[in-house]
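From: lab user (bench 3)
To: helpdesk
Subject: output format question, protein + pyridoxal-5'-phosphate

Hello, I'm new to running complex predictions and I'm not sure whether the block I got back is the full result or only part of it. Here's what I submitted:
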Amino acid sequence: MRPARAFIDLDALRHNYRLARELGGHKALAVVKADAYGHGAVRCARALEPEADGFGVACIEEALELREAGIRAPILLLEGFFQADELALIDRHDLWCVVQATWQIEAIERARLQRPLTVWLKLDSGMHRLGLAPDEYRACLQRLRALPQVREVVAMTHFSRADELDSHRTQEQLENFHRVIDGQGVGGSQMTASVANSAALLGWPAIRAQFARPGLMLYGATPFAAPHPLADRLRPVMTLESQVIAVRELGEGEPVGYGARFVTERPTRVGVVAIGYADGYPQFAPNGTPIWIDGQPGRVIGRVSMDMLTVDLDGHPEAGIGSRVELWGNHIRAGRLAERAATSAYRLLCGLKRVPRTYLGG
Ligand SMILES: *Cc1c(COP(=O)(O)O)cnc(C)c1O
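Helpdesk reply: Thanks, we reran it on our side. This is the complete output you should expect:
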């Protein structure tokens, strides 16, 4: 069998979830969209369900996968529905639903539901992607609250630059949000609100709301370019490993791999590792990209192929066929690799393909 494996540490996942909830101060929806950022949505949701306040997904297909696997906790559709006929499934499976545009309100008005919906009404506070404009938000809120199809409306917005700790934008967006929703609660209380993604939870601890929406941090990766003391408390959940499957002893001046991107400067032992860009490893990781061989730091040399890559075995005299190579995980943090390979931790994790996952920690 091909030795490539992704180990998923469910204890680390629970640890990170608890940190997210502690930082948010109240409840936290664990965002498990895109197959839990490559970690396996069903297994991750099962591991978190006993303590999670709910889950966030991108679409009804992802929500149904969780319901079919027996997940009973609340599930929020982060982009709402794409077509009005999804409302029947939302109703049947008791899903929470974002509303981000007026056509969705019209669809709810026309729908016949068995039980009233929990709606998360999204404000565009400055990201300018999804959400209602500030001048239409309150009218939409009143309209939803007047409907028998609606049980409760939660106020929500999303930050565009919370990972930039020196940007004013997060504070501005938060002020825009409060300008619209303050005083809009029912019976004199504040509206239930949700604003923070991972970067806001870690980087802007003064921002508090009833529901946080952590994604990336649950999986132990940092959203920041620079080291950060709270991000340091995260534990990586995924470790991607494979093995050396062949060793070449090359003389000086010999090219390695496609395009001869690396040429030996002296006699060199080269290890061939069974992992490549078809598994989600970055194709354009440069020469020198860090890896970990049998418990020692090492480096990639030569261009990454579809199914294989090559590493420098000089300095690893004991290494040979069968040596274990960590591509990312506990020693090679996804964020650090992403930076070297001009990609992001989000994309590395979500991009995992073909590699079987092994779950640790039940
Ligand atoms: C994906 C997503 C999140 C989670 O974001 P992270 O940066 O991964 O923490 C939160 N809220 C919304 C609306 C999202 O789409």
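A quick orientation on your result: The pocket of pyridoxal-5'-phosphate is lined by residues 31, 33, 78, 158, 197-199, 213-216, 223 (CB under 6 Å). Let us know if anything else is unclear.
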